[in-house]
Structure formats: C-alpha cells, structure tokens
TrEMBL record:
Region (Disordered): 1-22
Keyword terms, alphabetized: Membrane, Transmembrane, Transmembrane helix
Single Gene Ontology MF annotation: cyclic-guanylate-specific phosphodiesterase activity
Transmembrane segments annotated in the record for this chain: 36-56, 100-121, 133-152, 164-190, 229-248
A Pfam family assignment: GGDEF
UniProt cross-references to PANTHER family, sorted A to Z: CYCLIC DI-GMP PHOSPHODIESTERASE PDEF (PTHR33121), SIGNALING PROTEIN YKOW (PTHR33121:SF70)
Domain GGDEF span(s) in chain numbering: 464-600
CDD domains from the UniProt entry: EAL (cd01948)
Every EAL domain range: 609-862
Annotated protein name in UniProt: Diguanylate cyclase/phosphodiesterase
Organism: Halopolyspora algeriensis
Amino acid sequence: MLERHRSLSRQAYPDVPRPPVRAEADPARTRVFTRFSLGVLLGGIVISASTSAWLPFRYTPELLLIGPLLAMGFLLAEQLTIDVDVKRVGWTISFTEIPLIVGLLTAPFEVVLAANLLAGLGAQVGRRAASHVLYNAGVLCLEIAVPFAVATGVNTGLAGVAPMWFGAAAGTLTSTLISCGCALTALHVLGGGMRLGPGVRLGVRTFAVGLLNTSLGLAGYEVAVKTEWGWALVALLGTGAVAVYRTYSGLLREQRDLETLGDVSLGVARSGQAAARGPSGTDVSEGDDSVGEWVPVAERIREQLDATRVVLRLCLDPRGEVSTLVAGKPLPESATGEGASLLRECPILQLPGSHVRSYRTLDAPEDIRDALRRRGAHESLVVPLRGANQMLGAVEAHDRVSRWRGFGRADVRLLHTLASHLATAMDNRRLLARLRHDAYHDPLTGLLNRAGFREMAREGLHAGTVVVLRVDLELLTTVSEALGYTWEDRLVVAAGRRMRETLGADVPLARLEAHSFAVLLREYSGQQAHELAEHLRSVIAEPYPVDRLVVEASGVAGYVSSASAEHDDTDVDVDTLLQRADVAVRAARNGEDGVRGYVASMGQIFLRRFQLVTQFRQALDAGQIEVHYQPKVALPERRVVGAEALVRWSHPEYGRLSPDEFIPVVEATGMVDALTTFVMERVLVRVRAWLARGLRLSGAVNLSVRNLADESFPDRVAEALARHGIPPGLLTFELTESSVMADPERCLPVLRRLRALGVHLAVDDFGTGYSSLAYLRQLPVDEVKIDKSFVLGMGTDLGDMAVVRSIVELGHSLELKVVAEGVEDDAARDELVRMGCDTAQGYLISRPLSENRFEVWLQARTVRKSRPGQEAEEHVADSVEEILALQHQDQV
C-alpha cells in the first residue's frame, strides 16, 4: 500500500527572522498523481460494482460476527506492518492477505469489501495521510474485487479438479500483485520510476511475502475449522508469526536507524565543506550560512521518524542568528516568526544534556498546547542541540504518519541519538571551520595572513591581471621601548583597521608579518596602484592617539603587477610577486617619496643579494673571504700597539665587494657567527705569530648583535684563547652601542662574561648611537672609538672638534682609553695629541692591508736589537727616527 511520496525543493532565505526553508512535493507531479488517483478510484468502483452484480449476496446470521471480525483482522494487519523506503515512496508490507483469504472462504464480497474499506480508510485517517485517500480507496476496492472475481473464476473452471481453497489462494495472491503493480505505477507517476530489474526483484519479494501470508492464513483457517481446539493452534501459530515479523521489523528499523545516523552526519559534513575550503573572501566566518544545504538532513530525519513535519532551527551564524528549515508539511505562518520555537516555549532549556520531550495536545500544558495548535500539530518531539559551549539549535518532529498511537520509545531513542550526532557533527564542523579560519588569518588583526593571501592571490592570477601592493608601517624603535610591545601591537591593529576602512570589505588585505601589510588589487593599472599606495601610506602615517599621547608613524609602499612578470618572460606566481613587492618596498625606503613600483633593475639587485647569501659559506671555504688589518698607533709616541681586523670578499663574478654590501646580508641570514669565528681564528693565529717574534700586538674583531645574544659565545672565545695560547688582553672585541641596546637584557650578561675572561671591549663609532653617559656607564668596556665622521671634520668644523674633545674628556673621566678613527692628516694627529687622545687609526698611518702586505708594512717598522751575551729580539720601533738610528748601527 502506498503510504506517502516525497519531493524536495531547496531555497535559502537570508536575514533574521528567516522564513523556513521547506522540502515540499512538486506541484506538477502532485497534479498528475491526483488524476492518477482518480483513475484508480474510478477503476476500483467499476470493478467492485461489476463483481457485486456477478456474485450473489447470501445473508446469514453469522455475518454479524464475521464482518466485525474481518474488519478487526484487516485493521490489525494494517498496524502490524513493516515499512521499507523505496526512493521517494514508503513501501509498507502488511498481513492483509490473512484476513483476505479468510474472507474469501467465509463471507460474501460486499462484507469483505466493507471490512477492508473501513479498516484501510480508518487507518489512513488515523495516520493523517488523508491526502492519498482517493488512491488508497481505489486500491482497497481493487484488492477485494479482483481476488473475488479470480477466486470465483478459478473455482468454476476447476470444479471437481481442485479443492475450494485453491481459488481463494489464487485470488489472494492476485491481490498482492495488484498492490505491487499499483505502487510501481504510482512511483513512476511521481517521477521515481525503477528500472526493470529492481522492479522485478521487488515484485518477486512482495509476492513471496504474500505467498507466505496466504499460506499462513489458509493453514490457520483449515486448522481452526477441521481440528478440535484448532483455534488455539491458530492463535499460537499467529503469535509466532507476528513475533517473527516484529523481530524482523525491529532489525530492519535498527539498520535503517544506523543508516540515518550515517546519512545525517555525512550531510552535516558536506554542508560545511564549502565553508572549510579556504579563504573564499576577505571576511570568512566560522559557520556556513547556506541553509538550503541542510534540507537533505531534515528530510532524512523526517523519513526515518515517519513524521509529517520536521523543523530544524539552527544557529549557523557566529553572531547568533537562527535559521529555520522545514521538511514535509509546510509550517503555518503563525509558527514561523522569531521566538516561535517550541524550545523557547517549553522548560527543556532548563534541563541538562539533550533530553527529548514529547508533547501532545491532550495532556500538554496550556502554553505548549497553544504552540502545537499554531503549528497545526497534535503531537511533537522536541530536542535541543547542545554543543560543547553553546546552544546550536533544536529539532521538532510533528505528528507520526504510520501509527495511531503516535511516536514510540524507538522514535524517542532515535531522535535523541540523532540530536547527539547532529550536535557533535555541527561542533566538529565549527571546529574545522575555526581551524581553517585560523590557518588563513592573522590572530592579531583578523586579516588574512601570508598563507591566506597566497591563496587569494593564486585565485586572482587565474582570473586575470593582479597587482600586489605591500605597505610597511614604520615605527621608531623608541616607541616599543617606551610604550611596550603591547602598544605596538595596538598600533598595528589600528593601521590594519584604517587600511580596511579605506579599501572596503571586498579587497583582500593581509598582514604578512610584524608591520608589513599586503593588498591584492584586481584589474588595476600601474598609475592607479601608485595613487592607492600613496593614499594608504598617508592614511597609516596619520598620528595614533595612545592614551594621552600621540604617536607619530610613517609608511612606505611598493607594488608590482603580474603583467610586468609576463613582459620579462618570467613565470608568474604568488611568491615571485610578493618577493618583488618586497624589493620595491626596500627601494621605497631608500627613496624620498616612499612609494615605488617594481622595475627589472631592482630584480638584478635582489638577485645579487640572493647570490651573496647562497655563496657566502662556499666563499669561506674557498678562501675568497680575506682578513685585512689596519694598524693602531699610540699617541704621542706613535708606537704600533695593534691592528683592527677588517673583512674583504674577492668575488669571482662581482670583484672586490665592500663590507657595507655583504655584511648586512650575512647578519640578516644568521651566518654572522661563522664569519665572526673565522675572523677571530685568523686574528688569533696572527697574534700568536707576533708573540713568537717577540711582538706584543693586540688584534681587534668586530662583533654583531647576534654574537652578543649568543650565550655560548664567551665559552667559544675562552676555548679559542686557550687553544692558541693567547693572553686575553691581546684580543679586543669592538661593538656598537646600538647593537648592545637592541636587547640589553641578553647582551650585557655576555659582555660581562667576556670582560671576566680578560678580553678587552671597545665601543665602536662612539657619538653616533645613544652616546650618553648613562649608557656608557652600563657597558663593561675598556675603550671608546670616536667615529671617523667627527675626526674628519675637525679641521673645518669647530663643532666636530668640540665633540671630539668632549669624548676624550668623557672617556678619561671614566678611566677608558680613547681611540680616534679616520686620522688622515698631520694636523688632526697633532690636535689629538694636544687633546690627550690615546690611540690613532686612519689613512695617515695606513690603509687596511692584506695579511702579507701588513707583514711587510710591520717588518719595515720592526728592528732587531742585539745585546752582548743575549739573543737578538725584534720589537716595534717607537718612531721613524729610532728606525733610522738602529739601521745605521746595524750597518756599522
């Protein structure tokens, strides 16, 4: 018997309160099915009338008992059913063959027809399936009229050959085939037609069930009529058969419940796949607002509960907006407004967990009864969907179709399990969406991060020409030190907010790292990108109010178009564009206007820097890195006291490189430790050689901020001094104030440990950094080196001379030696002598020399002194006059 048909129509409505999304029947097919139902009813009436006119009616008093018993039998058979879903049609296997064959053997056609109609239509009304009453009435008539005609015809044709029950059995099996044929035809009319093979298999299985029921009914009748106490045996056999069928139905129900659980969980997961694919826009939320994708989930729950309607109220939006979805019978307008959920109208909110509550109009409280009436429902199951930390929604199931008694315990258990699975699946989906969101977004600003920007840029490249615009917020380091890094982060957030407001919500904006932002522009010309870059730069450069202060900032911007990469025959990819935008930013930082577009010549500079980075380690091993020495002389006696080690790189392609070009690259890539170790080892070897010749000269090595942040560096220095046998006082480390004060908490302990070893420490380029007495007193140093820019200007600028004199006096007051760099003429040297400067270094004495040339230079200033009875020893002459005098003695 056909119970119901199903058809889905998906439609999503935005905003709150949202009209419910419904799954309803196709109107066109409904009209066709209505005409088909009228045809079935008309055919049933005609055949029933013909059968009644053909077969005579014989009244007996027993009919008063047989009629009600047959009606009860048909009604009981309708209740003890096994429901099977075939596509969009509910297939119900019942025991109607048993009362039918009994009726064929004991009662006239009219009595059996009336009993079947009364039981069948009454069951349909009880199941609230009145929409198909025309079709079912026609099928009920055919199921009785045709079997009676067949049974009469078979018994007449086989009179005297076959027993009387043979015709009744044949007629009963015909009823089964009629039901199956009508149902398959209805399935085809509804647009869910089956192929021939599955249709035949379903018909065979239905016929097998009908044959079993017919056999049971016939055997029971024969036993009850011809055997003493046969009715007891029939009752026993019937009880066993019912138990078998009920057990099979229960197992089938459990299997379908498990399938439903899997379908619901899979449906929830699929509904969230679109939201979890990645950064599909500039503002990605946690949830997926596509309510229509939940229609299959709601419909699947309705099918399994056999309910006339299922209402899902889901909180899919992170802002708490609720979406309503209806599967089955449409929800009346009075029950679709905001706050119309039964969840809000019943005390289930105060209950822990996800308890299912059942409400009926007969015994529910008045408020719940009114809520059910507004929904046009007589019964409802309500269960909340609770996640780990919040309410996710609710499920309402209204009015079970296939039973008079309504929802049972199995339905409550199923809905409870479905709600648990649904809530867990929604929680997992939210967690997955959050993880995906965090993977592509910056946690500080909420903007896209580098990974998210790369995905967006990759999508943009497939669509056409894009421009990658990089903007860097420039903050003074004193801001972080004065206000703290928390306030610095707030400035970065404020800058990102300003850029977002300027660009709008549709333009992808990312925070790459620290103070660097990136913008993806689609179909922008170079001039438009330049104008936007200037505007963004001015926007983020506006003062930032911090409490009662106003923090000044600036910005630089660089941009590159994907079209430029196409013109220079380079493969266009996101990493290349980001790399070139970074090069443009660096060029803008060195320029005056603060905005630069990428040009090919910038790429050559970047390529050169990249080659220097990758080739430096090989250059160390290949001997391309050399150590040059610039001597230091003591004033006023002009005696050589040591030399500063300076690095030179003889590149096979670029020639001799300036330290200003490759040292910053080496420091930025973290290879400065290897460079410092290399220079220190060469200096210690040279000092050891000088000691072997009787020359006590010191060697000076420049340190980087990375060296000062390495806690193991003093241990390596101590090991090297011990290995070469060098007194610590002959090794000097030169450092700048800025390198120390970049991270004084880490640098000062390292300096103190070096000082404890006996190594000399010198402040290089003094006068250009913090240059204050407070900072100088904190540093455990032995000498200060006046920056050469002041020494060079002494002859022409009285201010520079005053600075040099102040540094000399300051150093001596702190018991520090003072070294003057950049001494290039006799006048500067003589003035430094008058000021009391301790040591001089510069071109007047010597340029930086390679090891061999420095040894020649030193040899020219080294004399061999011999005394009677002693070995000759070398020492550095105090002056040129002493060299000439000693050489004259050697000649004599």
